[in-house]
Design goal:
By secondary structure, the chain is α/β, with parallel strands linked by helices. It is 42% helix and 12% strand. Helix 12 links the parallel strand 6 and strand 7. Helix 16 crosses helix 21.
């Protein structure tokens, strides 16, 4: 008899049955299982791996167990669950004893019942919040659900497409947008975990934040679920506070108040030298990586610079305002400061061990406008980590029944994000929406007649003053609250950017059920599956107005129109980043420094295999050792 709980034991079952059969021992197989979600969370926590990897291990465990069961006659195999053992122990004991041909008399049953402590929790899975559990079940891989069904029935069919095999294929695939899958493929090492430092000027949930803040928050979360220790160094001026963003993630503030561009770069380098780390992530913007390679030394951490949008790229769509004489309305100090920043950004890009752009579009722009010819091939393209769970529109949400429809402009109120383009398009529409909601921070978009700055909110009010369109501004919403509002009100969301890298605002709404009218610029199309790219619009007022009219009309005629879906599944993008960090070299850090900031103080020996291979490899070794020991024991007994 063999009880399957530890994932390694399932690999041993076949070998043990073979040994027992060779000794003419009548073998019975008992498989004890638990609801998958509880097991997956347990595997994830103990193994310091993402839940997706833990689910792959759960599948492999019970797949192996059922493979062994398939080779036995039905009367020699029985399954039971933790839930049944705890909730109805007497009935389960009787059923299992029957399988073993053991007859329990009434006295034995009384003794068993006397030992049961009914004060213990009997159905722990019911303590989970019902909504959370239902959601987790919906997200389980199809083979997990199929295996669970087989464990609860007498059906022993085990021909399944396992998640472990899918993960293995994905981590080595040459899919566009996942180039990290091609790097250091022979260097897999789950342990020790790397210590990662993210240096950023923005972090979602901590003050004002844009796409950089969203990208780095989701990267931190994805790596933390793999068991890595994450420290985020938030470089902003003045006091700042924010929300806790997850276990294994520490946020520290580096005050930039009063620092020049050059002194700030040196301050960042000193901070990184004081707290040793294996990997440092920095964005190209503001040139935080400038001079770091020399400052941290040859045995320092791996430097990963993300191409999110250098200053020269942003300036190409937010031109300096011009005076009546055609001259630049910028002070010498402003021009000098931007020149310094661009020089620091270029140097920071050249410092990188790994230079990563989330889009082919921005890679091409940087190669053409910043790097020299011999550096063009050094940029990898890998999509930013998206939200771990795609937003979903409630199907019961009612569409607004007012005449026309309501549209939401989603993004910063500035020229580069398409505010002026959007207003021009609204004025050209055949049937304008009855209401416009603007969600995004306010910015200067130009100059008034008197030469003073004109803000985005002022520009909108001036242009729409006599149109009869209702206007609402939400300029201080956090990302999460903004997304919640969009899901609740079910508008047509408009993202009319003039230039884009790989826009998080678009990515966060993919597959949500919300209609989106988005300009086809930069790397936007790379986010969206090919079948849905027909809904993208050119960045000109006439074409944008036409798409807005069509989107409003489609509310009734074609509910699925303008609902954009992602080109790459979320879990594949997360996996590419997680697996890449498992393959990066570790810096020379002592164990105290490495474990600092995490709940896990002990580190295990390096093992160069991914989890779904590691369990099988180790258990095969254990199986051989156990078999040899058993043969020695039998041989010894035969001599007595």
């Amino acid at each position: 008899m063999w009880l399957v709980k530890d994932p390694r034991s399932a690999v041993l079952v076949d070998d043990w049955i073979e040994v027992l059969n060779s000794l003419n021992i009548d073998t019975r197989l008992l498989i004890v299982h638990r609801d998958p979600w509880s097991n997956i969370r347990s595997f994830s926590s103990k193994g310091q791996v993402p839940e997706l990897w833990a689910e792959a291990l759960w599948q492999r465990t019970y797949f192996n167990a059922l493979q062994a069961a398939k080779k036995q006659t039905s009367e020699k195999v029985v399954t039971t669950s933790f839930e049944d053992l705890l909730s109805q122990p007497i009935q389960e004991v009787q059923r299992l004893c029957k399988m073993l041909d053991w007859q329990l008399d009434s006295e034995s049953l009384k003794k068993i019942e006397a030992r049961i402590n009914y004060n213990l929790t009997t159905e722990s899975n019911q303590q989970l919040d019902t909504a959370i559990k239902n959601e987790s079940q919906r997200l389980l891989h199809p083979s997990t659900t199929a295996l669970q069904t087989q464990l609860n029935t007498e059906y022993r069919e085990v021909r399944l497409q396992l998640l472990a095999d899918e993960l293995e294929r994905t981590t080595t695939s040459h899919e566009q947008g996942l180039q990290l899958n091609e790097i250091r493929l022979q260097e897999q090492s789950l342990l020790p975990k790397v210590k990662v430092t993210i240096v950023t000027s923005e972090l979602q949930g901590w003050g004002r934040s844009g796409g950089i803040g969203s990208a780095y928050r989701e990267l931190a979360s994805a790596l933390a679920t793999s068991g890595h220790c994450i420290r985020v160094v938030l470089v902003q001026s003045g006091p700042i506070k924010g929300e806790k963003i997850g276990a294994n993630i520490e946020v520290s503030h580096l005050d930039s108040s009063g620092e020049s561009r050059l002194s700030l770069v040196r301050k960042i380098a000193r901070s990184l030298k004081q707290q040793r780390t294996d990997v440092v992530h920095l964005h190209d913007w503001l040139g935080f990586a400038s001079g770091l390679k020399e400052a941290l030394g040859p045995e320092g951490p791996q430097l990963i610079v993300g191409i999110h949008g250098p200053s020269a790229w942003a300036r190409s769509a937010n031109n300096w305002p011009l005076g009546s004489d055609g001259g630049l309305l910028a002070t010498e100090a402003q021009l000098f400061d931007e020149g310094i920043v661009q020089a620091l950004e270029l140097d920071g890009i050249k410092q990188a061990d790994w230079l990563i752009s989330p889009s082919i579009s921005l890679k091409s722009w940087v190669n053409k406008n910043i790097l020299t010819t011999d550096q063009e091939t050094s940029i990898l393209v890998n999509r930013n980590c998206p939200l771990p769970q795609r937003l979903k529109q409630d199907e019961n949400t009612l569409t607004d029944k007012n005449t026309g429809a309501k549209c939401v402009y989603f993004g910063r109120l500035e020229k580069r994000k398409g505010l002026i383009l959007f207003i021009d398009a609204i004025l050209k529409m055949a049937v304008p929406p009855y209401k416009l909601i603007f969600i995004g921070s306010d910015s200067v978009v130009g100059l008034k007649a008197d030469g003073t700055p004109e803000w985005g909110t002022e520009f909108v009010k001036r242009k729409l003053v006599n149109t009869g369109i209702q206007i609402e501004f939400e300029v201080n919403l956090s990302r999460d609250l903004a997304l919640e509002k969009l899901i609740a009100i079910k508008p047509i969301v408009v993202i009319p950017s003039l230039i884009e890298n790989s826009p998080c605002v678009v990515d966060e709404l993919l597959d949500s059920g919300i209609k989106m009218v988005v300009t086809n610029v930069g790397g936007t199309a790379e986010l969206i599956r090919k079948e849905d790219r027909c809904w993208l619009t050119s960045p000109n007022p006439e074409e944008l107005a036409r798409h807005l009219d069509l989107a409003i009309e489609s509310e009734i005629k074609d509910p699925k129109a303008y609902q954009l879906r992602p080109a790459i599944e979320t879990w594949k993008i997360q996996l590419s980043w997680q697996a890449f960090h498992e393959r990066l070299p570790r810096a020379k850090i002592n164990e105290t420094e490495r474990s600092q900031g995490t709940d896990e103080t002990s580190q295990q020996t390096k093992d160069p295999w991914p989890l779904w291979r590691r369990a099988i490899r180790k258990t095969n070794v254990l199986a051989k050792q156990a078999t040899q020991n058993l043969i020695k024991t039998v041989h010894h007994l035969s001599k007595q």
